C-alpha cells in the first residue's frame, strides 16, 4: 500500500518517521478518520473543519493547506484503488532535536503529517444485523475530549476490558453520566425520543453525530441533547453508537442488561438506512 509521509507518496514499508517525533514520544498529535464509499470521501468538509479546530486549540500548524489535503486524500484513494474503508490522517508537532515538554516554535520545527488508507466493509456488516454489547467503565481520559488527539491509551484499555467481558465496546462514564463510547458517540431512544449528550469539552464532536441528528430532525424524529446514566440506558427502548467508520451501530446489551427486546431497534435501523441513503 502507498502512504503519504511529509510531502511524499511512498510504499508503506519505506515510510519513515523520526524517533524524536512528538507524536510518537508524547502523543502530541491530532488526527481524523474519514470514511470512503465507492471511492468517494464522506463528510470531508466536516472532518477538515474539525481538524483545523483541533490544530488551533493546540497551537499547531498544518504543514499543508486544506485544499492540498483534499488532493492528497484523493490521490491516496486512487493510488490504493480504495473502494470502501477510510483514510487516517495525523498531524504531529514534528521532531525537535531534544525531548522537551514545552513545545517548539513552529517556525523552527515544522509539523509532520502522515496519511494512510484502510479497507473496511461499511455498508454490509454482520455486526449491524446483530448489534453490539457494551460494558460501562469510568471515563479516565483527559478533559479536552473535543480535541481529536492521539492520546488513545485509555480508550484502548477500556476496549480491552470490554473484550475480556465478552463485549464489543465500552461506554465511558463520568460523574454518573455516559460521556461516549471508546471511539463513537452514544445514544439511547426512549418513547421515540433520541437522547444523546450535549456537545462540550467532555466529548468528541462527532461528524457522524451532526449528520445523524440533522437527518433525524428532517425525518420528524424527536431529539434531546442531555445527560443520561447507564441505568437510564439499560431501561431505554433502544441504544446505538455513531462514528465515521461504523455509521449508526445498534447496541443490544449494556452491562449484561438487554436493551428493549434484545435485537437492534427500529429507530437505530432506520437512522442507519437514512444515513447510508443520504451520504452515499
Ligand atoms: N473515532 N467519540 C470518539 C472518542 C471518537 O474517537 C470518535 C471517532 C467519535 C465519532 O466521531 P466521528 O463521527 O466524527 O467519526 C466519537 C474514529 C472513527 C477513530 O478513532 O477511529
From TrEMBL:
Indicate yes or no for the key word Amino-acid biosynthesis: yes
In short, the EC number is 2.6.1.42
Q: Which reaction does it catalyse?
A: L-valine + 2-oxoglutarate = 3-methyl-2-oxobutanoate + L-glutamate; L-leucine + 2-oxoglutarate = 4-methyl-2-oxopentanoate + L-glutamate; L-isoleucine + 2-oxoglutarate = (S)-3-methyl-2-oxopentanoate + L-glutamate
Amino-acid biosynthesis as a keyword?
yes
Q: Give any Pfam family that matches.
A: Aminotran_4
Gene Ontology terms for molecular function: branched-chain-amino-acid transaminase activity
* UniProtKB keywords: Amino-acid biosynthesis, Branched-chain amino acid biosynthesis, Pyridoxal phosphate
Q: Please provide one cellular component term from the Gene Ontology annotations of this protein.
A: cytosol
Protein name in the entry: Probable branched-chain-amino-acid aminotransferase
Amino acid at each position: 500500500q502507498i502512504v503519504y509521509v511529509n510531502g511524499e507518496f511512498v510504499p508503506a514499508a519505506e515510510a519513515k518517521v523520526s524517533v524524536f517525533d512528538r507524536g510518537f514520544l508524547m502523543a502530541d498529535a491530532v488526527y481524523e478518520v474519514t470514511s470512503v464509499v465507492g471511492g468517494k470521501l464522506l463528510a470531508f468538509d466536516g472532518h477538515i473543519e474539525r481538524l483545523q479546530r483541533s490544530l488551533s486549540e493546540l497551537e499547531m500548524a498544518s504543514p499543508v493547506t486544506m485544499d492540498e489535503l483534499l488532493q492528497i486524500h484523493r490521490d491516496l484513494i486512487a493510488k490504493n484503488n480504495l473502494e470502501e474503508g477510510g483514510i487516517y490522517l495525523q498531524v504531529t508537532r514534528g521532531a525537535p532535536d531534544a525531548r522537551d515538554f514545552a513545545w517548539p516554535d513552529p517556525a523552527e520545527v515544522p509539523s509532520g503529517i502522515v496519511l494512510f488508507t484502510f479497507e473496511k466493509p461499511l455498508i454490509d456488516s454482520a455486526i449491524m444485523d446483530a448489534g453490539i454489547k457494551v460494558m460501562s467503565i469510568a471515563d479516565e481520559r483527559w478533559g479536552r475530549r473535543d480535541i481529536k488527539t492521539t492520546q488513545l491509551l485509555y480508550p484502548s484499555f477500556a476496549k480491552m476490558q470490554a473484550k475480556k467481558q465478552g463485549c464489543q465496546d465500552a461506554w465511558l462514564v463520568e460523574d454518573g453520566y455516559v460521556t461516549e463510547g471508546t471511539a463513537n458517540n452514544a445514544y439511547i431512544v426512549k418513547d421515540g425520543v433520541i437522547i444523546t449528550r450535549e456537545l462540550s469539552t467532555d466529548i468528541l464532536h462527532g461528524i457522524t453525530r451532526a449528520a445523524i441528528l440533522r437527518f433525524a430532525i428532517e425525518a420528524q424524529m424527536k431529539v434531546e441533547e442531555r445527560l443520561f446514566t447507564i441505568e437510564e440506558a439499560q431501561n431505554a427502548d433502544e441504544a446505538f453508537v455513531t462514528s465515521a467508520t461504523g455509521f449508526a451501530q445498534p447496541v443490544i446489551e449494556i452491562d449484561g442488561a438487554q436493551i428493549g427486546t434484545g435485537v437492534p431497534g427500529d429507530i437505530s435501523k432506520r437512522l442507519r438506512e437514512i444515513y447510508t441513503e443520504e451520504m452515499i
